[in-house]
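pipeline stage [seq->struct] | target=Type I site-specific restriction-modification system R (Restriction) subunit | organism=Sphingobium jiangsuense | residues=469
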Amino acid sequence: MQIVVEHFRENVEPLLDGKAKAMVVLGSRVEAVRWKKAIDSYIRSQGYGLGTLVAFSGEVNDPESNDEPVTEGSTLLNPGLKGRDIRDAFAGADFHLLLVANKFQTGFDQPLLCGMYVDRRLAGIQAVQTLSRLNRAHPGKDTTYVLDFVNSSEEILAAFRTYYDTAELEGVTDPNLVLDLKGKLDASGHYDDFEVERVAAVEMNPRAKQGDLIAAIEPVADRLLKRYKAAQDRLRSARERNDDDGASDAQDEVNALVLFKNDMTAYQRAYSFLSQIFDYGSSSVEKRFLFYKRLVPLLEFGREREGVDLSKVVLTHHSLKDEGQRRLDVSGRDESKLKPMTEVGSGSVQEKEKALLAEIIERVNDLFGAGTTDGDQLSYVTTLRDKMLESDALVTQAANNTEAQFANSPTLKDELMNAIIEAFEAHASLSKQALDSQKVRDGLRDVLLGPAQLYEALRARAGGDRLPA
């Protein structure tokens, strides 16, 4: 209980301007009741202002913890519930930790949930559904924590791989990885020390205004977006000219910029985790964390605009403070450890896949706007692509024509329309918009031929050898 409470107070509670919440997942209803009494006792002994709730179905008869059977609504367990639904009560500011056994591991939608503490065996779809409770989006939510006292990393990875082909667990143990990433990013030449200092100075100045932050970060973001757009333009031009060397060079530049952005994200995650354990003793390390945190959201590669979208820039002041080193030591247990990261910036192939998925989502979102989730949009494009891959006519045309020629094929237009119609039952809303708008259909065609790589997939199905045009 002590580890859960202290970790929550130090790492989870400060998130989302102090509104973050956490869930404790336990092995049975009896364990949940016992944990509730024990954790409340510890919180009282420390004088912490934390509220807890325990959720379970039915009645628990456990003489060890209570003299009489108790229910979820019992004042012995949840005196602050006062007849309210436990979901509504937990959403309020009075409660921070929710203890559960089987209840609320699925079908529980709480965007403020940023931490999970697991003390029960999880496997298969139950593991995926339970940990996915942390996935609900909320403004400013970019960090979540899971402390698992029971399951190994291999078991959790196996559960996710059943449902996500590219499931990946990342463990970081070497503090030098942050310094290695710092050196790699500094050597990229995409920014200089002056620009880092400029942004950090605004972040740490309590009198700074929103306009100061925009003035500090916008020039860097604008420069990188222009470089990406120029590389994309060169790539399209080279492909239209069948200039393989030019296309390869342009693609390398695009990939390098995408990898640069991903490395900044990796730096943020590594620093957020490792700075809790190691004292880097260097303000330049934290200043880069602040700089990257501001820069990354503005780099919407694949979603070119006339200028930088500054709607995501909101000033939150920071201060640098040395609080010393801390160590949580759970002795006497043979704990499974996550496999450590051994090299920085090494996931280029998978990062390209992630970049393509992100580009698909961004471009389809431009076509359909709000009202559908990213998952629905990605599923829709995948459905259309799979249906069009079944077309022998498209396979033949892709094998015998350049990509530019193939893009103008009347057969491609017809097969796209057929795919939209066939997908109507599963994706009625999106298909209706596509059927009603030539602009949307043209946009879908461009997405399919671009990041969805339909042309390459059709040629692969044909054997990959281009026949004479």
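stage status: PASS
auto-comment: The first strand starts at residue 21 and ends at 26. The beta strands are 21-26, 52-55, 59-60, 70-71, 97-100, 113-119, 145-148.
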